[in-house]
Amino acid sequence: MSAINKSLLAPVVGLNLWTFAMEAWMYGTRVPAISRYNVKIDSNATKAQFDAQLPGFVRWKADNYNHLLEQPTQFYAIMVTLAVLSAGDKRVDLRMEAKLAWVYVGLRIIHSLIQSLGNTIWRRFCVFLASSGVLLILTIRTAMLVF
Q1: I need a surface site. Which of 2, 5, 30, 80 has the fewest CB within 10 A?
Q2: Could you tell me if residue 62 is inside a domain?
Q3: Is 17 helix (H, G, I), strand (E, B) or coil?
Q4: SS3 48
Q5: Residue 97 domain-assigned?
Q6: May I ask which residue range the UniProt record assigns to the signal sequence (predicted)?
Q7: Is 16 helix (H, G, I), strand (E, B) or coil?
């Protein structure tokens, strides 16, 4: 068995680092806003009731942080699968998959910036659709190796 292809795991680490950056941005925006806007912390309030107390530009960072914990979980699973497959067969050339993975990460970062800085829905949707397409291609290419 050969070593795991680290070029397949680098985008995973990159997206995870970006998720932590978004978490810091979220708290750096939200915590001061809670006092600035006199937000009432009520354990019986729904998320919608809490969110209604904050302006959109504060909520957008939290919404994006949540988005980074949704679809990217599929990305992580596919990339780990590819890394395991690369360790099992030296003949498997996964350079294209590594490039596609970085494209996916780049698109997710662009999505984060669009949502966090102005939240233009149509632009954000187009970037999300593109990132979903890249993830679908990665998934199909992985399925072709597995099945």
Answers
A1: 2
A2: yes
A3: helix
A4: helix
A5: yes
A6: none
A7: helix
Q: How far apart (Å, rounded) are the C-alpha atoms in residues 85 and 74?
A: 17
Please state, rounded to an integer, the average pLDDT across all residues of the chain.
Answer: 95
CATH of the domain at 50: 1.20.120
Beta carbons of 5 and 98 less than 8 angstroms apart: yes
> From CA 81, how far away is CA 2, in angstroms rounded?
15
Q: Tell me the three state secondary structure of residue 21.
A: helix
Whether 106 is covered by a domain: the verdict is yes
The boundaries of the domain holding residue 17 are 6-146
Residue 1 lies in a domain: no
- How do residues 23-48 score in pLDDT, each as one tens digit? 999 999 999 999 999 999 999 999 99
Give how many domains the chain has, as a whole number. Answer: 1
